[in-house]
Design goal:
Number of helices: 2
Helix content: under 10%
Shape: globular
Strand content: 35-45%
CATH architecture: 6 Propeller
CATH superfamily: TolB, C-terminal domain
Radius of gyration: 20 Å
Keywords: Plasmid
InterPro entries: 6-blade_b-propeller_TolB-like (IPR011042), Beta-prop_PDH (IPR054539), Quinoprot_gluc/sorb_DH_b-prop (IPR011041)
Structural class: mainly beta
Protein name: Sorbosone dehydrogenase
Distance between the termini: 46 Å
Largest sheet: 5 strands, antiparallel
CATH topology: Neuraminidase
Number of strands: 30
Oligomer: single chain
Pfam family, one: TrAA12
């Protein structure tokens, strides 16, 4: 057995015929003492690069970062990178300790930067000649947004705001706190964020404090949901609920519709439950913890809530179980005709199935404003022979000038993918 692969248990189950799309096949739940756990071990890139489609080129525009998570394209084309490594909630069960150890084998040993780094390509040639620290002393920053002369950062415990002037390379002072966020335990510490098209609101994704309420339902207060925060006052309200871990948010161009990628629950088989991409409907309930993919009841949750299950709506598009989608961004015409209409999704990669999945960036094509068709591999080559990986994609952003920006928190690199002939 390779040292890099540590399968702890086996669940004999065939993969579903269709694991992605609007109507995925959902196998019967399977439970055991432990799920399959195989985490590819880190490997170096050396002289190699990730693989991209023919007609596109990829380059590393920033290296040596401290756990880059999400990126933000500023109005002048500069790129902000949030670098952080949140704390883990205390383990409750022996299998939590085992899972935590196995997951740690697939992570960078670099400490989180707790900072924002700014990248600048002054002459527009795709080479970012400036890499400088914009702000330090943050608390595991993750989500980023820009509104009318201000940069908003979602730390693991609060949304904070920096005043910003076009072209600024360093924050002028400490940030102002706009709104406190739930941070007790922080089983899921990442706080995804995006701004409404009119700049009045921020949307913040707050993950659950457990896999399936094993810490008690009280620990889930104000969690597993998306908040809407008033930028003027900091007041917040639940915008949508029942989303186990909304890890990235974005606004669809032309419609103003909020979309999210969500990581679903574990421990009911290698092919359940699909992580997903979905439009987020105001006031909607998406099932967690009582049900998944609409009204498929999760019998592990006690007591059940039939009324909540009856109200649960199914997401728009399954990405596959355990791919760990952590980034989403809509494309534009500058990315070329094959990637003009749709959304890019960064898949961090699985830890809880025998055959790893994810570890790539995919493109979900859209037609008439909705997902349509199979996902297309865009950036691959991270996973090597199933037992080692050279990178793990997190946030994705689309530069309107025609480039896909990908944060990789294993090799601590920012990748740029663009048409070879712009």
């Amino acid at each position: 057995m390779p040292a890099a692969a540590l399968p702890v248990a086996a669940l004999a189950q065939e993969a579903p015929a269709t694991s992605y799309g609007a109507d995925p096949d959902l196998p019967a739940p399977q439970r055991g003492l432990l799920p399959d756990m195989t985490i590819p071990r880190p490997a170096l890139w050396g002289d190699e690069l990730p693989t991209v489609p023919e007609g596109y080129a990829i380059s590393a525009i920033a290296t040596g970062l401290k756990i880059p998570r999400q990126t933000l394209i500023l109005p002048n084309g500069d790129i902000l990178v949030a670098e952080g490594k949140g704390a883990s909630a205390p383990a409750m069960r022996p299998k939590d300790i085992i899972a935590g150890f196995i997951k740690s084998l697939g992570k960078s040993s670099e400490p989180g930067g707790n900072r924002l780094t700014l990248l600048r390509d002054a002459d527009g040639d795709g080479v970012y000649e400036m890499q400088t620290v914009f702000a330090e002393g943050l608390n595991s920053p993750y989500g980023l947004a820009y509104i009318d002369g201000a940069i908003y950062v979602a730390n693991q415990d609060a949304v904070v705001r920096f005043t910003y002037a076009d072209g600024q390379t360093q924050a002028g002072g400490p940030p102002e706190t706009l709104a406190r966020l739930p941070s007790a335990l922080n089983h899921h510490w990442t706080k995804a964020m995006t701004a409404s098209p009119d700049g009045r609101f921020l949307y913040v994704g707050i993950g659950s404090n457990s896999n399936i309420t094993e810490r008690g339902i009280e620990a889930e207060e104000n969690r597993a949901m998306i908040w809407q925060i008033d930028v003027a006052t900091g007041a917040h309200r639940p915008y949508a609920t029942g989303l186990r871990n909304p890890t990235a948010l974005t606004i669809q161009p032309g419609t103003g519709q909020l979309w999210a990628v969500v990581n679903e629950r574990d421990e009911i088989g290698p092919d359940l439950v699909p992580d997903y991409l979905t439009s987020v409907q105001e006031g909607a309930f998406y099932g967690w913890p009582y049900s998944y993919w609409g009204q498929n009841v999760d019998s592990r949750v006690k007591p059940q809530d039939p009324d909540k299950v009856a109200s649960a709506i199914a997401p728009d598009y399954a990405l596959g179980a355990h791919v760990a989608a952590l980034g989403v961004a809509f494309s534009n015409d500058a990315m070329g005709p094959q990637f003009a209409q749709g959304a890019f999704v960064g898949e961090h990669g699985s830890w809880n199935r025998a055959e790893p999945v994810g570890y790539k960036v995919v493109f979900v094509p859209f037609e008439n404003g909705r997902p349509s068709g199979d996902p297309v591999d865009v950036v691959t080559g991270f996973l090597q022979d199933g037992d080692k990986t050279r990178g793990r994609p997190v946030g994705v952003s689309v530069d309107p000038r025609g480039a896909l920006i990908v944060a990789d928190d294993l090799s601590n690199t920012i990748w740029r993918i663009a048409p070879a002939q712009p």
